[in-house]
Amino acid sequence: MTTYFISDLHLCEQQPQITRLFTQFCRDKACQAQALYILGDFFEYWLGDDVAINGSDKVAQVVQKELFSLNQQGIKLYFMAGNRDFLLGETYADSCGIQIIQEPTTIDLHGKQVLLIHGDAECTDDIAYQKTRSMFRDPQWQEQFLNMTIEQRIDFAEKARQQSQQHTQNASADIMDVNQSAIDNLYTEHQVDTIIHGHTHRPAIHQNDNKQRIVLGDWHHQSSYLKVNENGMQLISA
Ligand code: MN
Predict the structure, then answer these.
(1) What span, in angstroms and rounded, lies between the C-alpha atoms of 125 and 200?
(2) How many angstroms separate the CA atoms of 84 and 37, rounded?
(3) Distance, CA 119 to ligand 1 centroid (Å)?
(4) How far is the CA of 218 from the centre of ligand 1 (A)?
(5) I want to staple 81 with a disulfide (CB 3.0 to 4.6 A). Which of 86, 94, 105, 111 is the partner?
(6) Ligand 1 centroid to 59 CA: how many Å?
(7) CA 80–ligand 1 middle distance (angstroms)
(8) pTM over 0.90
(9) Rounded to 5 degrees, what angle do the CA atoms 3, 62, 48 make?
(10) Which CATH class is domain 3-237?
(11) Is the four-CA dihedral 104, 148, 135, 167 of positive or negative sign?
């Protein structure tokens, strides 16, 4: 009984090698698993299910086929949104056979309670980022965005990406990591001693007393996944 966890693929047309890595991962690894959890920033940006399904988003269409095939083989698929693909909706999810899970979600993993998050909400030292985040997560803002024309949405996403890149370059590395007390609060509030998240692109297994925080890696140069089975956990980049 193997479960895989992945995040931060940042799939997009400009980086076809990531789509190839993902396709390979589905066919070599995920197809033999019991479940696959995708913990956000699966896509570099998401303009709306309409663009993905009927429109110009070829990557979303390739990925849909791979996921649907896994679903047909009986693998359970879960998706939690990140800060880039938070508009991915039920229509696209249904077409893939993925179940959307809310953030945070606690799951039972071989008898252990494990908390799943994307990880951006816990970067509380980055105040400018948190402001943008609350705007993007506002349902009213989301509705307005989805009502724009596709051209307007592409334009907006492009600008947002540039701003985000600029911010990442200028902000100090410290403030872009999770805040320890934000993480400690999650352990207490959800009564877990294991958290799995992505977002920071700093893959690691942090062990602190009896607490464990597993950070998933990004896929820019290789595949990166957490494999969990009866024998334990392995964080693999290959
Ligand atoms: Mn992220």
Answers:
(1) 13
(2) 17
(3) 7
(4) 10
(5) 86
(6) 19
(7) 11
(8) yes
(9) 95
(10) alpha beta
(11) positive
